[in-house]
Amino acid sequence: MSYINFNGQVIPATEPCIQTNDRGLTLGDGLFETILIRKSSIPALAYHWKRLETSAPIIGLSIPFPSNTLETMLLALIEKNNLHDKIAGARLTLTSGNSARGILPAPGTKPNFFISVFEHAPLTKVDYSAVIVRIKKNEHAPSSRIKSTSYLDNVLAKKEAVTQGYDEAILLNTANHIADGAISNIFMVKNQHIYTPRIADGALPGVVRTILLDEFSNAFSLTEKSMTIAELIDADEVFVTNALMGIKPVTKLQDKHFMQFPCALGLQAALRERKDYL
Q: DSSP string of 40-95?
């Protein structure tokens, strides 16, 4: 039997807990984090917490626990589900809570949260492809900067890419610049310089993206910039990042194939050494 944490209580995963008037369910009014847990170590927890603290005020949410309580709940759930010696993932979902029907929450509505954990098998396939899809990201919307439970554009973008035989979808913004992937941030390498789209261009402030910019920018000449389709396709390397995948080289972009990834693999090794990441 597997277990989840709902509002601070550990319960069987099969036990009903979400009510039909939860605004995360009915309106997508909430946030989520997907967190890597490696043998009871949480290498990027501080970065997940920082994003949660930054995102919650944007949608008027209060976080009903401090960061140290989140760590305690995550590790207790890992232990309860017998994942303490494994590579695992956790999904934290925070909603604006139960409220009467209507677009705005009733006064005094309290947030709900639930946490689930799962064994995570790192992506081992060598080939990883990406394609630019028709769905665009509105870089002017507040939702472009948060990990919102309203994830339909990402779902549809991913479906479009997979239908075409690709692994990941790349979304453009309204100015036709590169924003990010359906489940990832995107990076390109040109002449040993690494670039990634700006938050202002619609890039989600992903956790691994933030770690790389904060801790590796100088050693690897890594900067943010607006990025055109032509620049991306003309890159020497392309790679994507997310919290569970870490750094993944893209071997095919549109119809272009990439064969060597010295910058991506070097950065991957540095991330593994410093943060005990994948």
A: TB-TTHHHHHHHHHHHHHHTT---SS-HHHHHHHHHHHHHHTT-TTSEEEEEEEEE
CA distance 149 to 24: 7
Taking a C-beta distance cutoff of 8 angstroms, is the pair 143, 150 a contact?
yes
- pTM comes to 0.96
The domains located in the chain, with CATH, are 3-119 (3.30.470.10), 129-275 (3.20.10.10)
d(C-alpha 55, C-alpha 60), whole Å:
9
DSSP β-ladder status, 193-196 and 222-224: parallel
Sequence-ordered list of residues with C-beta below 8 angstroms from that of 3, at least 6 positions apart, any chain: 10, 11, 12, 13, 77, 80, 81
pLDDT in tens, the chain (278 residues): 999 999 999 999 999 999 999 999 999 999 999 999 999 999 999 999 999 999 999 999 999 999 999 999 999 999 999 999 999 999 999 999 999 999 999 999 999 999 999 999 988 889 999 999 999 999 999 999 999 999 999 999 999 999 999 999 999 999 999 999 999 999 999 999 999 999 999 999 999 999 999 999 999 999 999 999 999 999 999 999 999 999 999 999 999 999 999 999 999 999 999 998 98
